[in-house]
């Protein structure tokens, strides 16, 4: 009898004890047998680690001595993980019993599939997609991400409209299934990013290395995160605007960086002007601070760009078909297209053979 591929499930935690019982218990009840469960503790200041050790002895604990962000924590964990596949999992989730099998089956069907995400639905309303993942990540050519099921703050009901297995541009870091061997070619998470859009950058580099990324809606999890995200906080605005331009500058080839980044910058300053008129100085300050960081770190960005371009195996012409060629900002705010299916020229005939 052939042994199932091994899967390491790494649950990231920081002072999240209130979430851990349900998360770990549902993961332990997963019907996939060849799995190993880790708690990746990001320097919690409460008794989270002691609680897990006392109550869940089968869960291995990886302790990060410093809370230095999502990227650094998972890079530490990846050094410990030796299985065929790894799942980066948020602690505020509850998983279905058979959530792993369909992702493994899909990954095993094609060795060039590097990453898969399950469908993420709201913990509080199972008829609604969840903000952080919905049914797969997309991005427009100007560096603005959106989802099959969520554009900016507009979240759709899950009416099974995005239940097809299809290629996506990025897979949500809330539940990110990855082929461990593919990470050797793409590199791990970029710790310069620290928070937000880290998984988009990694998925982009996996595409540059020639790999494919999918959503597997047969697998689904319930996620609390979307209900607690502070979408208008200074830090979130800063990280998102900083990192979106940063990853474009290092991942696009020169031609497309010059073509698309300036338009992103212009759209940012339209947002700044609107924020000032609306007296939303938090938004204006977050965007301006992000641009200041970019201007102050030109040499760092050049260095990171050299590292990223060195792993490239396929050109942008192979990657651009997976990006939305229009501006999702203009579609959403000016044309009032609030759902994925109403975006102009969006390809709704996606399938597994793309």
> Taking all residues together, what is the mean pLDDT?
94
Name of the CATH first level of the largest domain: Alpha Beta
Q: Helix count, per DSSP?
A: 12
Based on CA atoms alone, the radius of gyration comes out at: 20 Å
CATH architecture descriptor text of the largest domain: Alpha-Beta Complex
Fraction of residues in H or I helices: 25-40%
Q: What separation lies between the terminal Cα atoms?
A: 33 Å
Structural class: alpha/beta
CATH topology of the largest domain: Spore Coat Polysaccharide Biosynthesis Protein SpsA, Chain A
Largest sheet: 9 strands, mixed
Low-confidence stretches: none
Overall shape:
globular
Number of domains: 2
**String of helices and strands:** EHEHEHEEHEEEEEEEHHEHHHHHH
DSSP strand tally: 13
User: What is the CATH H-level superfamily of the largest domain?
Assistant: Spore Coat Polysaccharide Biosynthesis Protein SpsA, Chain A
Quote the beta fraction: 15-25%
């Amino acid at each position: 009898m052939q042994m199932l591929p091994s899967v390491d499930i790494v649950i990231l935690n920081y002072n999240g004890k209130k979430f851990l019982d349900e998360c770990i218990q549902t993961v332990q009840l997963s019907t996939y047998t060849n799995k190993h469960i880790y708690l990746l503790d990001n320097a919690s200041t409460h008794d989270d680690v002691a609680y897990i050790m006392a109550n869940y002895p089968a869960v291995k604990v990886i302790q990060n001595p410093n809370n230095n962000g999502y990227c650094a924590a998972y890079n530490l964990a990846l050094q410990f993980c030796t299985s065929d596949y790894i799942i980066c999992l948020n602690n505020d989730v509850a998983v279905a019993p058979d959530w792993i099998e369909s992702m493994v089956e899909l990954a095993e069907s094609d060795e060039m599939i590097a990453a898969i995400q399950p469908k993420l639905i709201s913990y509080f309303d199972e008829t609604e997609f969840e903000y952080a993942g919905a049914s797969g990540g997309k991005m427009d050519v100007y560096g603005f991400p959106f989802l099959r099921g969520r554009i900016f703050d507009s979240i759709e009901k899950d009416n099974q409209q995005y239940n097809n297995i299809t290629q996506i541009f990025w897979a949500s870091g809330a539940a990110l299934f990855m082929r461990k061997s593919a990470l050797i070619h793409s590199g791990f998470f970029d710790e310069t990013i620290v928070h937000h859009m880290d998984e988009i950058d990694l998925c982009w580099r996996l595409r540059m290395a020639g790999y494919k990324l999918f959503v597997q809606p047969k697998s689904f999890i319930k996620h609390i995160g979307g209900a607690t995200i502070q979408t208008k906080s200074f830090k979130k605005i800063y990280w998102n605007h900083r990192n979106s331009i940063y990853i474009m500058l290092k991942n696009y080839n020169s031609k497309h960086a010059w073509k698309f980044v300036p338009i992103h910058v212009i759209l940012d300053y339209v947002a700044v002007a609107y924020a000032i008129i609306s007296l939303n100085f938090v938004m204006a300050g977050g965007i301006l601070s992000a641009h200041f960081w970019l201007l102050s770190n030109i040499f760092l960005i050049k260095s990171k760009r050299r590292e990223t371009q060195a792993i490239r195996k396929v050109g942008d012409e192979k990657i651009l078909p997976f990006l939305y060629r229009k501006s999702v900002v203009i579609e959403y705010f000016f044309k009032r297209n609030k759902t994925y299916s109403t975006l102009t020229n969006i390809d709704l005939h996606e399938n597994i053979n793309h």
